[in-house]
């Protein structure tokens, strides 16, 4: 199996708490992005001492309470399914803090991490703070919820977005990459994708490739899978009949999303 594709591991950590995914610098080639997905039954809790990591806690589905032991955000989260296609609530917690998530209802929660040194205030990023963007034309249309875009200075490194791509459409397309620390031309950002499909038996294709093709993998991605993008172009194609959702986390040495389109395919933007 591809090194970039991850199936849910679904490890039971304790009663009511399941670790669905766990991407770390130890078990992946990523240096700047760590990611966990957890499932919590009503009343279950998860807590963590962050150390030198900042964390964006995304209430992917269900309702949760979040505290950093000083500030409390109760009953956050807006949807039962991501395919309601409404933005959700998230909480940013800075390095050297401890946080706890408690499920009010059955909940799936994303924990998006990046190394961080300078403490910033804990912050609720409410659903209404998400910038909703419609990108592309024709079969390249997709909808983006900007949870933590680079225009929002609430984080030191993390960038977090949700993307919905309708049946028969493409996203991250034309293929682009952000793997050179060469601003203002391009930024270096690692990236993770957490995917869901509606209906859930669907699949999408994601290709990750570099100009020299030293990396060139095309993956069949199923509901709940993750794709890790250490470098390279990373387009997603969605077959007829299915809607695609993914949650992206990006981080690198500079918190700027400056991508470079594959010159072979950039023409479609002008066509
Ligand atoms: O399709 C897009 O506009 C980009 C996103 O799908 C995704 O966030 C990405 O590729 C970021 O580099």
Brief account:
The protein has strands at residues 5-6, 11-14, 17-23, 34-40, 45-49, 53-61, 64-67, 72-76, 90-93, 98-103, 107-115, 123-125, 131-135, 142-148, 159-165, 170-171, 176-177, 179-182, 186-188, 190-198, 203-209, 216-222, 226-229, 236-237, 243-251, 260-261. It is mainly beta and 271 residues long.
- List low-pLDDT spans: none
What's the rounded overall pLDDT mean?
A: 97
Shape: globular
**Alpha-carbon distance between the termini?**
37 Å
The CATH architecture is Sandwich
- What value does the Rg take, in angstroms? 18 Å
Total of domains: 1
List ligands, each type once. Answer: ligand LN3RO5KU
Number of DSSP-assigned strands: 26
Q: According to CATH, what is the class?
A: Mainly Beta
Give an overview in words:
- With 271 residues, the chain is an all-beta fold.
- It has a single domain, classed as Jelly Rolls (Sandwich).
- Helices cover 0% and strands 50% of the residues.
- The mean pLDDT is 97.
- Ligand LN3RO5KU binds next to strand 15.
Name a few traits of the molecule.
271 residues, mainly beta, Jelly Rolls, 7-stranded antiparallel sheet, 0% helix, 50% strand, binds the ligand O=C(O)C[C@@H](O)[C@H](O)C(=O)CO, 5-deoxy-glucuronate isomerase, Deoxy-glucuronate_isom_IolB, RmlC-like_jellyroll
Topology:
Blueprint: E1 5-6, E2 11-14, E3 17-23, E4 34-40, E5 45-49, E6 53-61, E7 64-67, E8 72-76, E9 90-93, E10 98-103, E11 107-115, E12 123-125, E13 131-135, E14 142-148, E15 159-165, E16 170-171, E17 176-177, E18 179-182, E19 186-188, E20 190-198, E21 203-209, E22 216-222, E23 226-229, E24 236-237, E25 243-251, E26 260-261
Antiparallel strand pairs: 1-23, 2-3, 3-4, 4-11, 5-10, 6-9, 6-11, 7-8, 7-10, 9-12, 13-14, 14-15, 15-25, 16-24, 17-26, 18-19, 20-23, 20-25, 21-22, 21-24
The chain binds the ligand O=C(O)C[C@@H](O)[C@H](O)C(=O)CO.
The ligand O=C(O)C[C@@H](O)[C@H](O)C(=O)CO is lined by residues 135, 142, 161, 163, 171-172, 178, 191, 234, 248, 259.
């Amino acid at each position: 199996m591809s090194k970039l594709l991850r199936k849910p591991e679904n490890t039971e950590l304790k009663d009511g708490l399941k670790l669905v995914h766990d991407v770390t610098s130890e078990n992946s080639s990523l240096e700047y992005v760590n990611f966990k997905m957890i499932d919590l039954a009503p009343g279950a809790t998860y807590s963590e001492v962050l150390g030198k990591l900042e964390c964006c806690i995304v209430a992917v589905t269900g309702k949760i309470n979040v505290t950093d032991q000083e500030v409390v955000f109760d009953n956050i989260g807006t949807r039962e399914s991501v395919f309601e296609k409404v933005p959700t609530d998230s909480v940013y917690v800075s390095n050297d803090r401890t946080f706890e998530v408690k499920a009010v209802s059955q909940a799936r929660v994303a924990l998006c991490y990046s190394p961080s040194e300078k403490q910033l205030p804990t912050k609720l990023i409410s659903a209404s703070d998400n910038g909703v963007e419609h990108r592309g034309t024709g079969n390249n249309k997709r909808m983006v919820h900007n949870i933590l875009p680079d225009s929002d200075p609430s984080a030191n490194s993390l960038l977090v977005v949700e993307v919905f791509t309708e049946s028969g459409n493409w996203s991250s397309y034309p293929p682009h990459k952000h793997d050179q620390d060469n601003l203002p031309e391009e930024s270096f950002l690692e990236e993770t994708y957490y995917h869901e499909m509606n209906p859930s038996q669907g699949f999408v294709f994601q290709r990750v490739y570099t100009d020299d093709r030293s990396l060139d993998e095309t993956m069949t991605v199923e509901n709940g899978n993750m794709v890790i993008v250490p470098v390279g172009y990373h387009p997603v194609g969605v077959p007829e009949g299915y809607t695609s959702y993914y949650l992206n986390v990006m981080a690198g040495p500079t918190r700027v999303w400056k991508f470079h389109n594959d010159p072979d395919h950039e023409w479609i933007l002008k066509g």
